[in-house]
Amino acid sequence: MASLDALIAPRLAALEPSRQRRLLLPADPALIDVASNDYLGLSRHPQLIERACQWAHRHGSGSRASRLVTGTSADLLALEEKLAAFKGTEAALIFATGYQLNSSVLPALFELGSDKHGPLVFTDRLNHASLHAGCQGLKQIRFRHNDLAHLDELLTTNPGSLRFIITESVFSMDGDTADVPALAALAARHNAILYLDEAHATGVLGPQGKGLAALAPGRVPVVMGTLGKALGSAGAYVAGSRALIDWLVNRCAGFIYSTAPAPAALGAVEAALELVPGMDAERARLAQMADSLRTTLQASGYDTLASTTQIVPAIMGDAAAALAAAQRLRASGLLAVAIRPPTVPAGSARLRFALSTALSDAAFERVLTSVAQLKR
Ligand SMILES: *Cc1c(COP(=O)(O)O)cnc(C)c1O
Fold first, then answer.
1. Is pLDDT at 200 greater than 70 in this prediction?
2. Long-range contacts for 131-138 (Cβ within 8 Å, ≥24 apart)?
3. Whose CA is nearest to atom 12 of ligand 1?
4. Could you report the per-residue pLDDT of 206-224, keeping only the tens digit for each?
5. Does the pLDDT of residue 21 top 90, yes or no?
6. Residue in 145, 190, 210, 229 annotated catalytic
7. Which domains does the chain show, CATH number per domain?
8. Is 267 or 115 the better-scoring residue by pLDDT?
9. Does 103 sit in the ligand 1 pocket, CB within 6 Å?
């Protein structure tokens, strides 16, 4: 019998020279966190914690079964209605994680094609790994990042009876945004279906933090977002028509064969949905912080790509340079993460700053000071 560990050891060792081996390190709570996605600081908000406790007391620590068996409560259905109202859609469906959602909702949609070769999928080159997982088995037609002229051209030269455009509203590693109204118009012109991932926009961008799909009301047929980032809890939602949600309840394996999310997590989402629309002041402060950080990084000569959001990359080059920069910031009390290939393209290893209004003004001043000294 082959030893599994003996097969693994040389593969792991092969990751070392290119500094690609990943380690699970406990985060030091004393560090100033500029790496997490808790953009509005809601994960520590007393109202979310309190509501999580209430839902746990009411429904238990676990949900006990798949949604279709016994995992659906009246509270959960009401929460999905609130999410749909927040997103301006007829219906919404909650999943345990965004990765699970993207990797199982897309295959359920691809089933709708009648062509034996499957549908055509047009994907942004920088799409998240979970969107790739959802496209497994299909040849993706990839357009240059945020390049709608390129997408237009590819749609023109690749006709098909069922075509999807799959992209993100805020890109998780570059911090730039897609032009959602233009994407919606392009999709309509080519009779393609737009699938939009709002993981990093939900709660942060768009009117009242409703995401960028709100800039093209009724014109984004499938929109998903996560509940574990700005919404301070865990899980993900997909929002769209009643027919879409009914189809997923019937055909989406990642929904059907998975235990419903824990009640405490759902309770926290309910509280977050009450708070988020009223957090314009926090959103404005977050945007200002991001502007200051970009200005500081650019003054030191770092490329921040096309970032306009709370996610700010600083390009370091190779993986070793990015790791060394993260190490230097750590020594000055900051938790900033080096993002390396294959998560980002070769040569664009970077520090990825993710800002949060949980940072005090004093803490953020320290961030700017440390970043300004990074090159010295
Ligand atoms: C985080 C993320 C996901 C996955 O969501 P999880 O709930 O963390 O599994 C999906 N898409 C994008 C763009 C993300 O950044």
1. yes
2. 131/102, 131/106, 131/166, 131/168, 131/197, 133/99, 133/102, 133/103, 134/102, 134/103, 134/104, 134/105, 134/106, 134/107, 134/166, 135/106, 135/166, 136/103, 136/107, 138/110
3. 199
4. 999 999 999 999 999 999 9
5. no
6. 229
7. 24-40+279-372 (3.90.1150.10), 46-277 (3.40.640.10)
8. 267
9. no
